[in-house]
Each structure stands twice: as structure tokens, then as C-alpha cells.
Amino acid sequence: MNKLVIFSGTSSTKKEIVDQITTLLGDNLEISAFATDDDILHPISNSLVLVTSPLILDSVKPLIRDNCKIIVARRTLNLSNLDKILYINPNENVLLVNDTYETAIESIELLKNFGFDFINYTPYYPNLNIDTSNYKYAITPGEPHLVPHNIKNVIDIGPRIIDITTIVEILSNLSMLNKKSHNISARYINKIISLSRELYTKNKNIKELNELLTRLINHIDDAIICFDGNLDMKFINNSARKLMQTEDYDDNLYKIKSFISNQKSSESILYFNGCEYIAIKELSYEPELSICILKNARERINIENKLRKEIKNRGYVAKYSFENIIHKSPVMKDLINISKKLSQSDFSILITGESGTGKELFASSIHNYSKRKNAPFLAINFASLPEEIIESELFGYEEGAFTGAKKGGKIGLFEIANGGTIFLDEIGDITPKIQLRLLRVLQEKEILKVGGSMPIPIDVRIIAATNKDLFTLVREGKFREDLYYRLKKLYIKLPPLRDRRDDILHLFNYFLDKKSEYPLEVSKEVKDILLSYNWPGNVRELENTVEYILAIIEDDVIKPHHLPEDLISTKRHCSLDDIEVFILKTIKDFNANRKIIGRKTLSELSFECGLNLSEQQIRSKLNILQQNGYIETSRGKVGIRLTSKANSII
Fold first, then answer.
1. How far is it, in rounded angstroms, from Cα 36 to Cα 7?
2. Which of 227, 337, 592, 596 has the most neighbouring CB atoms within 10 Å?
3. pTM (2 decimals)?
4. Which residue in 162, 296, 306, 136 sits closest to 223, CA to CA?
5. What is the pLDDT of residues 601-641, one digit of tens each?
6. Nearest-angstrom CA–CA distance, 161 and 141
7. In 3-state terms, what secondary structure has residue 364?
8. Which of 449, 339, 428 is nearest to 381 (CA)?
């Protein structure tokens, strides 16, 4: 059996050439192949030796016996991979990367001979010190690891193979030329035909795509005109052609070119044929193009009015404004003033507060006070929906994205809310997957539909709300830190109802007047209970209390027995005398100011308010309060503290 020994510079080249020869010559040949970094344990004798370059021959010649025939291969490019180069723009500066200067130059010459002479090549090889920052493309014959890291687009055309003249020389030396020449020429012809067919198909697809895009652009109502760098018209759609084809053609064209030439303005108002148009300019630098889009202002206003009406009919509106926030306390007045200022910004807002404090009420009011007030307002509650539904609701999905997906896909809430506000309630309950997707929205201002591949730009303000401590969740690794700080660019903390007791009776009377069919009197005992109750459900619980009273009352006066059991049972535990109330209130004041209080201080303060209690009397009362679960005592810096039971009634 004939023997062929191959020496190459790299392992990838070795594999490529072995595959090429094996495919062409079949199994009637014993092939041994080595790269220059392989260990060769014995000299080569009685073989045909193929070396891939003169440099390789110099390094391996001492290993080759005189009874061997040596062929230095002539190399060419692999036709299968050259089509990728067709997508590079003409006159683009491109690096040609190879292992040496000589091989890089050879590859450049081969590419030019194959007709790829429409781009500017720069040879690049290891240790060459040149600035590559202005290069976007690199072409390499099987050496992608040598490409500078800053080059984003790398086209690997594969290692160079041996050309047909070298194949013929190998066959001649192996006495196989007559037997194999017909098959080899047929293979090369088929390869060229296959490549030609592939290029034809690609060009045909590109042509069909261009025709489709042209048809689509011609069906757009907006007028679109494209100019090159010399302000020569390159494209005009049907709407623009109709607008321009009047007796004022030259004057209209002059207006558009003047607008394109104005570097200070990307939008303007232009008048054509007695109508007002909004002109928008888009610039492209590769190649240098200017696109002018003309929108009929009156038609656009009519469409926007129709859209607003449709949004309102569908319920995508904010129902509340700051006037709907019933309050009397100074803390709420200050909070509303702050919220009005925050509404004028476009940054995301995080609203925190206990359940029932009015987070959606504030979110809705902020939207209605902002510049987005005429755009959609959408709300979604994360606590009430599973992850899969939340994902498809927020981002939408493409047709066939999953089993049961609607034909034609579905638009998501972010797209519906484009230009407006989306309210994400109970944000602390979202899964890590949705957290990551929300982070992309905040960072990139774009969404990706479920099952989609094309990002969709959006302009939506996000207001998020939670009754959880997100910072604690961040420390526990349950909430992304980067998402937390993205959401919390602006921040509002709503106080619980127990911290704004001035609002309790004010809100109670408001709900009573709103829901009752006839006037009702509120007894003093009921007022005392309402003011002393802790209201863990906040304003929502207060409203529910009014509805409960109205459902059962048959009198004109609301009395304690008309109240829900929760409020009555709390009052039963409030049988404190004046001294005990004084002690608890004083301790609460000191606790709030982070001050330590003891028997001596309590005794001194009792004389100031006329109770005149000795330290022994204070000790006795403290023991009773501790036994009944109202206080906790500790030695050291902590001192006396109120329990949650005491805090609920004081």
C-alpha cells in the first residue's frame, strides 16, 4: 500500500488536509500526519512526504531519509466558507489574521484572486504592534485564537487546503493519476457548482427580502424619503411620492433637504400643500444615509385621541388622584407633596408599606399627576399569579411559544403600557427568573417576548410596591441587589394607620358618609375603641369595619356591640387605670427617642403631672404591668420596653 506522510504547522491544518486527501483518494493510501508540535519518534523513510509550506520543510528536513520524495504543497482556500465574506460592506478595513506575515499575505492574495477584492485587507500575525481599535472585522484561515480580543466580528474561513495541482502531483508520484483523475476533477466541479448554487440561493433570498421590505414600506401611511451623503434621493415610498408629486415639488424637496442638513434638529414641523407634518430625521453612517419620515399632524392627533378612548374603554387608566387620598394628619400631607414632586421624574419608584396602607392609590395618583397621565396605566399583582402566567402577561408571547399559545401570539402588558406606567404590586414575591427579566427592562429599555428572538424597545415608567422588607430579602439572597437599587431610584414609605391616628376618625366618618344610606351617630365609646385599636389591616381594615357595622346595625347610634369582635376583644384588655396609662405612655415616649427610663425617672415625672408617685409605688405598678404582658424589663442599657400588646393600645 502507498504511504503518504504529511507535515503541517498546526493540528487544525493537519486534520483539514488529512480529511481532504482521504475524501479524494479513499482507503487505498496509508496516511501518517504530524504537526510541528507533535513528537516524531522515528525518521521517515520510503514514503511520499507532503509539507504544507517551505518553512515547515526547513524544520522537518533532518527527519526525512533520502529515499523519500518530498512535495511542497500549494495551498488554496476552502470554498465552502467564503460566502460569509459577502456580507462585509465594500471598502471596509479588515484584518487578515494568520500565524506568520508570509501566510497572511498568501491568504490575502488568494482572496483577491477569488474575487474578494472589494474590501481593504491588513495582514496581522502574532506580536505585530498595530492599533486594531478601528477594525470591526477579522478574517482568519483557521487561526481564530490569534484574533485581537477587541474585534467583535470574526470570520473563520477554515484552514487552507491543498490545491488541485498538488493533488495531481501526489497522484502522479503514487502512480494513481490515471485511476483517480476523473473522480477528482468531478469532485472539484461539483464543489464549485454547489457553491455557485448556494450563492445564487442567498442572492435570490436577499432580493426577495428587499422586494418584500419595499412593498411593506410602500404600504406605510407615513411619507419616507432616503438620501445619501450628497443629498441625492435614494428611495421614496408611495406616500412620499404622492405628497411630493404636486406643482410645488421643487419647493417641497428643498424644505426636506434643508431639514436634513440642519444638524441641530432631529424633529421639526413642515408645511406641505397647506397641511402640517411632523418631520423626523434618522441618520445612518454605514453607509451614510439620511431618512426623513413625515407624519400628518392632524391624522396623528386623531389616532392618539382614538387610542386614548380605546385605552379608557379597556380600563387601562389610573382610577385615583391625590384628591382621593383622604387624610388629616401632617405626615400624609407631607407625603403627598413629596409624591407630587417625584411624579414629575421618569425614574422608577418603589413604594413600601404594610398591607392596606394605599400603595396602589399612591401609584395611580402619581401617574395621573405625571406627564404620562394621558397614556395607559396597567397594574399586575405578583402574589396572585404563577410565574408562567406572569411572564406571558408581562412580556407577551409569539405564536407556538408553548402548548396552548394563541394563534398569532399575544401582546404583553409592557407593550400595552408603552408611553405610560406599569404598576408592579407585591414585587417582593417575584421569582428569580422574572427578576432577571425585569432587570433587562430597566437596563435596556426593551423586552423579549416568550418564544421570541427580536427585542422590542419600550418607553414605560415602572412603579413597584411591596409590604416586605426588600433589603432583608437582598441580604438573604432572595432578591437581586441590582434590581433592588434599580427599582429604588425614587422611594416612598407609607406609614401604617396606627402612626397617623389623626386620620382614623376622619377616614371612618368618610367611609360612613359614603356607604351609609342615612346619617349615623358614633358613640364616644366607639370613638375611643377606634383610636386605641392597632389596625394591623390599616385603611382596608377600617373600611371593612364600616361595611360590617352597616350590615348589622338597626339603630341610629353606633355602639361598641356593633363593632367586629377583633376591636371589642382588644378593648376588653384595655382596663388600665390612669397611673398605668401614664407609665406606659411615658415609657413609649422614651423608647421612641431611644432613651433609657427607670423607676426613679418615672417617679420624678409623676410629680410634674400631679400623680406624685414614689419609687416603691412605681415598682409595684411595673410588676403588675409586666405580669399582664404590657412591658418587658432588662438590666443594662436596654431598660424597660413596651410589648406589642401595649403598643396596640397606647
1. 7
2. 227
3. 0.47
4. 296
5. 898 888 887 788 888 888 888 888 888 778 887 665 567 88
6. 10
7. helix
8. 428
